[in-house]
Sequence to fold (573 residues):
Amino acid sequence: MEDKNKLRSAEWFGGNDKMGFVHRSWLRNQGYPDDYFEGKPVIGICNTWSELTPCNGHLRDFAEVVKRGILEAGGFPLEFPVMSLGETIMRPTTMLFRNLASMDTEESIRANPLDGIVLLTGCDKTTPSTIMGACSVDLPTIVVPGGPMLSGRFRGEKIGSGSMNWMIKEKQEIAGYSAADIREAEVCVARSIGHCNTMGTASTMATMCEALGLTLPGFSSIPAADSRKKLFAQLSGRRIVDMVKEDLKLSKILTREAFENAIVTNAAVGGSTNLIIHLTAIAGRIGVELNLEDFDTVGSKVPLLVNMKPSGKYLMEDFFYAGGLSVVMKELSPLLRNNTVTVNNKALTDNYLDAVCYDDDVISTLNNPFQKEAGIAVLKGNLCENGAVIKPSAASEKLMSHRGRAVVFESMEDYHERIDEPELDIDENSVIVLKGVGPKGYPGMPEVGNVDLPKKLLAKGITDLVRISDGRMSGTAAGTVVLHVSPESTVGGTLAIVQNGDWIELDVKNRKLHLDISEDELLKRKKAWTPPMPLVDRGYVKMYISHVEQADKGADLDFLVGGSGSKVERDLH
Ligand code: FES
Fold:
C-alpha cells in the first residue's frame, strides 16, 4: 500500500477540503475512478509530439504505450504537451527556443501534481530542452528517446538523413542534379518515422541520455519503427513508477561522474559538437561543475569505436543490428566511471555485461579503433579568448595544422551574397571566417558553421576548407570547422575584428587558434569596434538576447541556471 503522504501529488489530491474537491473533480470529467486519487504515483508524460516536428511525429502513439506500462505498475499517467522544436522547419533556428522550451517544461512539471516524469523526445533540441527543465525541478525522471529513422536508399546507395543535405550543392554543381532528382532523394532519405539516422545531434542526444543513466540500458540505438522501441517505452512506463517509490531523482543520477561518462561515450561514438553546449547547460541546471576544458581533458584521447556517418560509413539501423550502444558501453567500461546509478538503479557498466558485437566493421574495440583519438578538441588563443571547439574525427587530416589568409563574412546574409561571386579572392588555402552567428548575434547560434564552399572551388574538386565561426554545426555535417568561438563577435570577441587577408593559424594538436596580428593592432581595432544593434527589440527574443550566456557556458539564460526544486510556495486559491 502506498504511503500517500510521501507523494507530492497528495498535496493536490489527498485533501478532503474544498481544494481537494476542486483538484479531483475537474479531472474526473475524464472518467477516472476514486482509487486513481488515493495514493497512486502520478506520472507526467511530457510529450514533444508535434506535426511541425517531423522527427517526433510518432510520439503520440508512444505516449499510449508508456501509459500501458505506468498503469501496469500501479501509476496514474497524465500526458501533457510542451513546446516542440522542429529542427528542419523552425526559423531562424531551434536553438533560439531551446531555453524557452526548457522553461515550459520546468514550469509545467512544477505547477502540476506530478510525482514522476517521462520525457518523450526525439529531434535535436527536444531532448536537452526537456532535460534542462526537468533538472530544475528534480523529480524522478526517465527519458524515452523516439529513435532514429530506418536507413534510406537512393538509387542503390545508402544515404543518411542530414548528411545528404550537405551534399546537395555538390550534387547540383558536379553531378547536375535536377529538381526531380532532388524530390526523389527527399523521400528516399526520410523513409520512416524517427529522427535523423546518422550519429547527428539527435542520435548524440539519445546516446548522451543513455550514458548519463537516464534511459533503460540498450534503448537509445533502437530505430523508431522497430517494435522493440515500443517494448522499451512500455518498460520505461513501468520503471518510472518504481523510481518514484525509490525517490530516484535526477540529482541522484546526474553526478559529475555521469557527465564524464557522457563525454567519454560521445567521443567513442563520434557524436556531435552540439553535445558540448547541451551537456554544459544540463550540468548548470543540476548544479554540477562542468567547463569547456573538461570535454578535452576527459574525452579527447578516447578512441573512435563506431564507423558511423557523418565521420564514417554506417547508419543507426546498422549500429543497432551490430549490437548498438550496449556493445560500445561494454567495451568502454575500463574508461567509464562505475560509481554512478542509472534509472534501473544499477551502476552504469553493470548494465552491459552481456552485450555482444555482431559486426566489427560497425563497432570496433579499444585495441583496434577506427581512430585513436576521437574526442572534441578545445582550442585556445587570441582568436577565441574563452575557447572554441573542433571535431577532429570529422575534419580533414591535412588541415589540422594550417595557416591561411582570412576571407571574412560579416553575417550569413553577407556570406550568401558574396560566396559565389567569381571575383571572390579565395583558394584552397583560405580560411573562411563567419561572424554574427553566435548566441546573441544571430540571435540563437544556428548550425551554419559548416558553410558550403564556393562553387568555383567545388568545381576544382576541393571539398574542405578551414571554416571559423561563433556558430554551431549540425551533428550530421563534417569538415575542418572551428565552432563556438567565445566570446562571439557581437559582444566584441577578437573574431569581431578579423579582416580580409589576416593570417590565421590553426594547430589542433597544440590546441591553438591564433590571429596573426600585433598586439598593438589588435588593441587598436578593438578600440575602434562598435557593437551592432540587436535585430529584435521585443518579446522573448529581446529577453533571450539580454540574458543568454556565451557558448562556453552552455548558452543557457543566466537566470535559468540552477533549479527551484519541486516545491510550490503558494497554493491555488
Ligand atoms: Fe530532427 Fe535531424 S531534423 S533529428
About this structure: Residues 55, 87-88, 123-124, 162, 195-196, 200, 202 surround FE2/S2 (inorganic) cluster (CB under 6 Å). Residues 170 and 176 are 9 Å apart (CA to CA). The radius of gyration is 24 Å. The first helix runs from residue 10 to 13.
